[in-house]
Amino acid sequence: MELRRPLVVGNWKMNRVPSDASVLLDGLRERLAKVSNVSVVVCPPFVILPAAAAAMDKTSIAVGAQNMHHETNGAFTGEISPNMLRDLYVTHVILGHSERRTHFHETLGEINKKVQAALKYGLTPILCVGETWAEREKGNQEEVVRRQIVSALKGVSSDLVSQVVIAYEPVWAIGTGKTATPEIAQDMHSEIRSILWEICDESVARNACIIYGGSVKAANAAELLAQPDIDGGLVGGASLDAEEFFEIVSCAEREYVGPAAPIFGEGPDFQSQQ
Ligand code: 13P
Fold first, then answer.
1. What are the residue ranges spanned by the domains of the chain?
2. Any ligand 1 atom below 6 A from CB of 50
3. Residue 112 CA: distances (Å) to CA of 107, 126, 128
4. Residue tagged active-site, from 169, 189, 191, 198
5. Does the domain made of 7-271 have the CATH classification 3.40.50.450?
6. Is residue 86 a contact partner of residue 119, using CB atoms and an 8 Å limit?
7. Closest-lying ligand 1 atom to the alpha carbon of residue 234
8. CB contact set of 65 (below 8 Å; sequence gap of 6+)
């Protein structure tokens, strides 16, 4: 199994139009050309995917979508299928983003089907999980994240789970400027490794790529990315500025600790609970 490496993903959300996207795409390509130790994925809206794939052709920058339907084709007006994405040279897909869970009422079951469909078509799912502020205030954050992960990965073999990127995005930190402290983020990332150990095995847990999202900027990226269980970032607003996004990628290159850190000194929490 491949050792994990840092990953920074830019989620443009519903921003930019095709006719003005080339400035940002060209800016990203030029700045990121020399980055070799960090995987980078750019996720623009569907209508910009062809231009993004063309702009990133022959670079190490991958292109991802922000959502997809789980079916291959059929009467699903307005939807985009995994094989359509593959046909556009898309390699990654963000699934279960909290904005989709909230505004589009995506259910745990639907997200599970999407994860399975993405893997079937060779797309890397970037599975988003995270609690609301109300859930954290009640102390339910670990239970919420556990439920989201366990249901999204139901029926997925350990081999395939190892291909899933997990993005911890506390809902209260998204677009609010309120970043989780490095300690809060590290605690949850370590918990997510414990959950993966529980549902798969130690090797999957140790090598899983777990990234943090929620108001990541150049100014706070270094302290987050220096945490031993944080493998990178899922960046929203700051990914719309090529220079700022490049700064975040550079932080990942400088600060990454990765699997060298002794993560499982005392074993996962679930063992002590048994
Ligand atoms: P912001 O970086 O704008 O807070 O968005 C985070 C996010 O939702 C990325 O998917």
1. 7-271
2. no
3. 9, 12, 12
4. 169
5. no
6. no
7. 9
8. 43, 46, 49, 80, 85, 90, 92, 93, 94
Q: Is the CB of 169 under 6 A from ligand 1?
A: yes
- Alpha helices for 105-176 (secondary structure H): 108-120, 133-137, 141-152, 158-161
Q: Which residue reads 């898309």 in tokens?
A: 90
- Both tokens of residue 53? 């794939």
Pocket flag, ligand 1, residue 241 (CB < 6 Å)? no
Whether ligand 1 lies within 6 angstroms of the CB of 216 is answered as: yes
Q: Which helix (H) or strand (E) holds 82?
A: helix 82-87
Phi, psi angle pair for 50, to nearest 5°: -60, -40
Catalytic residue from among 69, 70, 92, 97 = 97
- Using CA atoms, how far apart are residues 245 and 125, in angstroms rounded to an integer? 21
Closest alpha carbon to 169 in 184, 151, 154, 150: 184
State if pTM tops 0.90.
Answer: yes
Residues 208 and 249: their CA atoms lie apart, in Å, by 19
Instruction: Determine whether 169 is an active site residue.
Output: yes
Residue with tokens 């897909």: 93
How confident is the prediction along the chain (274 residues), in pLDDT tens digits per residue?
567 899 999 999 999 999 999 999 999 999 998 898 999 999 999 999 999 999 999 999 999 999 999 999 999 999 999 999 999 999 999 999 999 999 999 999 999 999 999 999 999 999 999 999 999 999 999 999 999 999 999 999 999 999 999 999 999 999 888 889 999 999 999 999 999 999 999 999 999 999 999 999 999 999 999 999 999 999 999 999 999 999 999 999 998 887 655 444 334 443 333 3
